[in-house]
Amino acid sequence: MSIVVLVLLAVGIIFGVHSIRMRFVTRPAFAFFKRVLPPLSETEREAMEAGDVWWEGELFRGKPDWNKLHGYGQPTLTEEEKDFIDNQVKTALSMMDDYDIVHNRKDLPPELWDYFKSQGFFSLIIPKKYGGKEFSAYANSTIVGMLATRSISAAVTVMVPNSLGPGELLTHYGTNEQRDYWLPRLANGQEIPCFALTGPEAGSDAGGIPDTGIVCRREFEGEEVLGLSLTWNKRYITLAPVATVLGLAFQMRDPDNLLGEETDLGITCALIPTSHEGVKIGDRHNPMNLAFMNGTTHGEDVFIPLDWIIGGPQYAGKGWRMLVECLSAGRGISLPALATASGHVTTQTTTAYSYIRQQFGLSIGRFEGVQEALSRIIANTYQLEAARRLTTTGLDLKVKPSVVTAIAKYHMTELGRDVMNDAMDIQSGKGIQLGKKNYLGHGYMGIPISITVEGANILTRSLMIFGQGATRCHPYVLPEMETAQMEDQKAALDRFDRLLMGHIGYACRNAFSSFGHALSRSSFASAPVAGETQQYYKEMTRLSSALAFMSDIAMLILGGDLKRKEMLSARLGDVLSQLYLGSATLKHFEDNGHQQDELPIVHYVMQERLHLAAKALQEAIANFPNRPVAWLLRALIFPLGNHFAKPSDDLAIKLSKSLLKPSPVRERLTFLSSLFEGDKSGIAEVENAFIAQYECRDIMAKLSAAQKSGSLERKIRGMALFESALEKHVISEDEFKQLKVADELRLEAIHVDDFKKL
């Protein structure tokens, strides 16, 4: 006992006496920190500093304030936004024949282009003072999502002007003159924009673009002016083949120091009319055979005045920060909207198809193999909708959460891929035969596009989510990194001492919290609600503490090498991502008013989220390069083992059955895939057949009972069964007619298109 007291006394003296602590703790720790500090490129530093820390910061720090989550409010549509959706959007949907668009025209029909321009579809984010709609992020997402349920090509065409591009950049950074000139023209469709960032040598490493703008003096419109000689070669540029104005990102250099002493100014963005001399718009690409315009642009020694820099000359070299801050539109709104649309349309059509499609005399929805896949579709769609709402809530609060939008981009597009794969497995032949009746094929073809653009998913997961999150969300690491760069070493050491003491206390709290929650099965963690979802909040708190603790250990032990341990970094990022998705699910359930019919879905989703988060932690520990430290991590995080299991088979069966009927919960899960008056699409066909078949369920039960009793022959089906039942007075004439109509609708819905031989 005396030894323990002596040890505690020694520790107290070392940490409690300032001069001793500075000599034996702070100075060595500061030297170690500067030695292991990972080197940051200029673009990495700007990415770290750009944007805001939002809810992900709470999750990363080990003690989420769940009341703060529920205090963010919920996304709603204004009356103007509702009116636009009920009228203009549904009119646009009625004008779409996606098979014709993709396979015949290879473009949107002229009347749809004109309608998009005249009705303001390209001006959703432009302020009203310039003639735009100035809709919320949630409305923007909803509109793009609804369009995507019918045509990916049309949705992409609309989402690009409302995503990363001239409109977004001008609104935030443009000069008054630039806004006054360009924004009204963009709003009314007079100008069609594109933004050229990606090139043959710069994809996900957009910061490494080789395109250049050299400061020089030349004649422009009869006067000698200071400007830029631009040379660029870009590809994969959506809307480039039809664009009238080109946003361009390039490296700006001033070798003759015409602007000042700095030679390499950095990434800069400019706005150039495509009719300007020297601008070349190349041939179009063919992205997965879809019809949206995508192509190349290049130029060599193209001169523009400095005033064409977005934001004017004072924004020279600030383009990368501008781009990182504005990427939230593509990463947080547009691509997640496409993924969520996949969920809505696959849930609607696959539940309907599973009910009407029969094999062995039974609806295929009664087979457990189908129910397993169907439960994933339903749960993932609920997750997609929940994440869409939480992410757009953050954006509408005017925060720019770069880590959250990276999570949304990666995980939502991957979930979109999952729901589409499961839907294709269930609908099989119906899904693979292209034609006007096919409502899955083009969406399936478009999935890799969402996976690829706005930062390839592999690199988003392995480099961005945890790479930025660990630094941005941590309460001490970024200030410590800034301290290490201070020139005044005495001031730096004093500041680092304060940060270090706070950091040590923070790490110890998370270690004890993680261990204590693990031993108690999170019994003493707080939760903002009671009832069936209470335990999920508690378990999320436990895993949040474990993530915070392990992140500190990983950064301490690996230092700069953690940046290169991409698989380890990706797994830690997965933990943060699953916690974010779980938060979105719990908030969505609360925002919807604790709907009891959603509980089976919430249970499935949350059990899956917790299972995947714990699995990622377990795999990160198993692959931690320092084995003694790995043993310590396992002992503190999983002292009793990993008990987070996947959802049970019984829950999957219950979940799938709950949506094999028309119901309010089904409507809430499929509202983006809405029908309209006179709808003749394949979606309308299968939905109408589903409703008609469901309305015949009591009559079908009567026929089944008669077959079991021997009143009707067991082996006959379809019209032969209906006619026999009518003849033997098992059903009435009206019931026979109802069955006949429903069966005709069923057969029409399960049929696929065929074509004449070539």
Concise summary:
It is built from 31 helices and 9 strands. Strands 1, 2, 3, 4, 5, 6 and 7 form a 7-stranded mixed sheet that branches. Strands 8-9 form a two-stranded antiparallel sheet.
Description:
With 758 residues, the chain is an alpha+beta fold. The chain is flat, with a radius of gyration of 29 Å. The chain is 59% helix and 9% strand. 49% of the residues are buried. A hairpin with a 2-residue loop joins strand 2 (212-220) and strand 3. It is built from 31 helices and 9 strands. The chain has helices at residues 2-16, 18-36, 42-49, 55-60, 66-70, 79-94, 98-105, 110-118, 137-148, 152-159, 166-173, 176-187, 319-326, 328-356, 368-396, 402-427, 429-432, 441-452, 457-472, 477-484, 489-520, 534-558, 566-591, 599-622, 627-637, 649-658, 664-670, 682-695, 697-709, 718-727, 733-750, and strands at residues 193-196, 212-220, 223-238, 245-253, 264-273, 280-284, 294-305, 358-359, 362-363. The mean pLDDT is 91. Strands 1, 2, 3, 4, 5, 6 and 7 form a 7-stranded mixed sheet that branches. A two-stranded antiparallel sheet has the order 8-9. The protein starts with a helix and ends in an 8-residue tail after the last helix.
Number of strands: 9
Estimate the helix proportion, in percent: 55-70%
| Structural class designation | alpha+beta
Low-confidence stretches: none
How much is the average pLDDT? 91
C-alpha Rg, in Å? Answer: 29 Å
The biggest beta sheet reads: 7 strands, mixed
Q: Please state the overall shape, judged from the principal axes of the Cα atoms.
A: flat
- The helix tally amounts to 31
Portion of residues in beta strands equals 5-15%
Question: End-to-end distance, in Å?
Answer: 92 Å
